[in-house]
Amino acid sequence: xxxxxxxxIPEKERSKEEMSPNGKASPxxxxxxxxxxxxxxxxxxxxxxxxxxxxxxxxxxxxxxKDLENGQMREVDLGCGKALLIKESGEFHAMGHKCPxxxxxxxxxxxxxxxxxxxxxxxxxxxxxxxxxxFPGLDSLPRFQVKIEKEKVYIRASxxxxxxxxxxxxxxxxxxxxNYNLSNTNVLIIGAGAAGLVCAxxxxxxxxxxxxxxxxxxxxxxxxxxxxxxxxxxxxxxxALRPKEFFRTYDIEVLxxxxxxxxxxxxxxxxxxxxxxxxxxxLLIATGNTPKALSCKGKEVxxxxxxxxxxxxxxxxxxxxxxxxxxxxxxxxxxEVAAYLAERAHSVSLVELxxxxxxxxxxxRVGRAVMKMFxxxxxxxxxxxxxSELREQEGKLKxxxxxxxxxxxADVCVVGVGAVPATGFLKQSGINIDSKGFIVVNKMxxxxxxxxxxxxxxxxxxxxxxxxxxxxxxxxxxxHMHGRIAALNMLAHGMEISTVPYLWTAMFGKSIRYAGHGxxxxxxxxxxxxDELKFVAFYTK
Length: 541
What we know:
Belongs to the FAD-dependent oxidoreductase family. InterPro entries: FAD-oxidoreductase/Apoptosis (IPR050446), FAD/NAD-bd_sf (IPR036188), FAD/NAD-binding_dom (IPR023753), FAD/NAD-linked_Rdtase_dimer_sf (IPR016156), Rieske_2Fe-2S (IPR017941), Rieske_2Fe-2S_sf (IPR036922). Keywords: 2Fe-2S, FAD, Flavoprotein, Iron, Iron-sulfur, Metal-binding, Oxidoreductase. It is a single chain. By secondary structure, the chain is an alpha/beta fold. It has 11 helices and 37 strands. The strands form 11 sheets. The chain has a 6-stranded antiparallel beta sheet. Strands 15-14-13-19-31 form a 5-stranded parallel beta sheet. β7 (115-117) and β8 (124-126) form a beta hairpin. The longest helix is centred in the C-terminal third of the chain and has 15 residues, at 476-490. The protein is globular and about 80 Å long. The relative contact order is 0.11.
């Protein structure tokens, strides 16, 4: 019996937060005649005047002042919702108790230097403001008033904020633009993943009120890409990072199914595949990467997938149910797909060139422990070999032949053998690209061309904690931070990146969390029990 519990904020609660003052999501309106530009800052109702509706307010005594020591957190109940009460340096703070990313209980997180870090995926919130300061996730936490009376701690809060547990930061809007020209934008963002979206949102949060255009080859508005391999039957609207109304409300235009073919830096113009040209003032390139395909015989047969889109993931689940699946590559994607399909498919086989999964990343001992967990969940490994041929019957995949001579029955094949940066269109542009195809940026996410920034999986950047070594870190959290830093520097804030890289993966109910950048380690120090998968590993050099 499989029980799935999903906590979803009702659409009407979510949309309440993204309404303009007249209660309707404001459409994008540009007036060509007249020269006046009208902008206003739309503030989240709670932030502007938290208690403008007395019926929406609750006040409760939650504890005695001596109940909490400095550096302690406690989840407290106000009757119609909970809050997180924090005591640091003798002061009390109260804020939302759930991480807005996926609802993790923040009381189980870490309080340090005025910030709370989420226990699941590492998002970080300032206890003084509730603002998100490290990612993943897009929203901040609501803050509540705290008062002390007769040695008792009282919290005063908006009921709506207690229920939604999230706060969209104040954002600028661009209601009407004079001399509006379709083929001209102030900021053009190529790519609509986490880096592109966070860049657009940060610009608006910082009061930028000119035109922003995002373009993507995808059919969908920005969505939670890590979900494609972790929760493969998710539909696009379930994993959308923001609803459609959000983009309308904050005047962020998204052009879907639009591919940029070239960038002309001299004339500050992006040329699209269909011939359309768009001029820009500032440019962000956040195109991510392209999965590598197999180069063996029969690679064009049906039912062989790289998982790039929600449609790919959904199709694989449908084809794999009660059938034979072969996964090529014990990458994060390959292993997550294997874990997801293990209970659904008749058989899951995994083919990998290395002797253990994740050897380069986690080291041999951790890799072996993870492999053992997979084997006890009916996943069969074929290591130190690769695919030599894909055989078909009536055009559809039937067998996968390995170089070792082994023939595997296969109704569907998922390929996870790595990726290359999607930067081919920049070859003649003059933008600095390294030998592997990565865009080279500095700590401000600037390329060698003024006004051109790059972010996300397609870049190498100097990592502060490794003596500014140029690294490529294709993590979801890092893409968010890149987008934020790029936006701040488009606005000349002079902000440098100093984030600690963080990633997580979840397989068979176990989650592995990894902080830092251990590339080139020569020893692994393990504390705890590897067999029980209750351990900490330190990667040293």
